[in-house]
Design brief:
- The protein has 284 residues and is of the alpha+beta class.
- The chain folds into 2 domains: 1-98 and 197-283, no CATH class; 105-176, Ribonucleotide Reductase Protein R1, domain 1 (Orthogonal Bundle), CATH 1.10.40.
- It has helices at 2-63, 106-115, 120-134, 147-152, 178-184, 204-208, 214-227, 230-234; strands at 75-83, 86-94, 99-100, 188-189, 240-248, 254-263, 273-280.
- The strands form 2 sheets. Strands 1-2-5-6-7 form a 5-stranded antiparallel beta sheet, with helices on one face. Strands 3-4 form a two-stranded parallel ribbon.
- The protein is extended, with a radius of gyration of 29 Å.
Length: 284
């Protein structure tokens, strides 16, 4: 009787041991599968990232091509590019076709905000606030905002009283809400130094900011731009551009890069470009 009982206990121990081993093996298999999936995801993301980076480099080369007929145009058109099995879409926008936060006139700033759907009164206030942000001194302009106005709005900061250090700094301007910022951000720059956008490269929103142009003028410029030979337009490219490259793999893995670069020319021993801003993903 004792022997049978001992055998039963031993059998239970063996069964429990086998069950524990099965659970452990199942856990290890699930862990290995998860790590495998993570490795494949990271590999795909890395491939997509470097394909997008290759797109940025291809755009820089295209902008500086010695053959004007094949030189890329910085007016926002899409250039397709394939790299290592990835399909890359590249767009280039010349910064001189945007509204410069540090140089734009009040009329241009007001026109930009109106074109973005901001009501007239608010558009004038935002324009004045942008000008007061960059202007030295403590006295606010009419409808503008200096330190007292920011304090009255409950903000712990005031205007820089100097040039904008980045495009993103405009988010801090009094009255700049998230909706307005999202609308105008793609049309803003700090690198053109122009009082108004260059109509040869400007996108529709920036074109609409130019005083006196109107909807008909914007439509005419865009229509003419589509009819002009690309090599002629490319000859008018500036030196500072924002390039966006989006790479998509066959499995749907996606990566995007946006870089603002300044061309320096192709000379022996000279870096052909300088990176002014680099962003990964779609966030502004």
């Amino acid at each position: 009787m004792t022997i049978r009982r001992d055998r039963g206990v031993a059998l239970l121990i063996v069964l429990w041991g086998c069950t524990l081993l099965a659970i452990m093996l199942g856990g290890f298999a699930a862990l290995a599968r998860t790590e495998g999936l993570q490795a494949r995801y990271q590999y795909a993301q890395t491939r997509a990232h470097y394909a997008a980076e290759a797109g940025i480099m291809r755009a820089i080369e295209g902008l500086q091509s010695r053959d004007f007929a094949s030189r890329w145009v910085a007016d926002g058109r899409v250039y397709p590019f394939e790299f290592d099995g990835a399909k890359v879409a590249i767009t280039i926008v010349d910064e001189d076709g945007k509204v410069d936060l540090n140089a734009a006139s009040g009329d241009v700033l007001t026109g930009l905000f109106k074109a973005a759907g901001v009501a007239d009164d608010k558009a004038h206030r935002l324009s004045a606030a942008v000008q007061d942000w960059r202007r030295p001194g403590d006295a606010a302009s009419p409808n503008g905002a200096k330190k007292p106005q920011y304090e009255a709005a409950g903000l712990a900061y005031g205007p820089r009283n100097g040039p904008f250090a980045s495009v993103e700094e405009a988010r801090m301007v009094l009255g700049m809400d998230a909706k307005t910022w999202t609308a105008v951000a793609p049309a803003l720059t700090i690198w053109s130094g122009r009082e108004r956008p260059n109509s040869e490269h400007a996108q529709p929103l920036a074109l609409a900011a130019i005083p006196g142009l109107g909807q008909a003028g914007v439509a005419a410029i865009l229509a003419k731009r589509g009819q002009v030979d690309a090599s002629t337009v490319a000859g008018g490219n500036g030196v500072t551009h924002t390039i966006r490259a989006e790479a998509i793999l066959d499995d749907g893995t996606r990566s995007s890069l946006t870089s603002t670069i300044r061309l320096r020319g192709i000379r022996s021993g000279n870096q052909p470009y300088a990176v002014l801003r680099w962003r990964e993903g779609d966030a502004e």
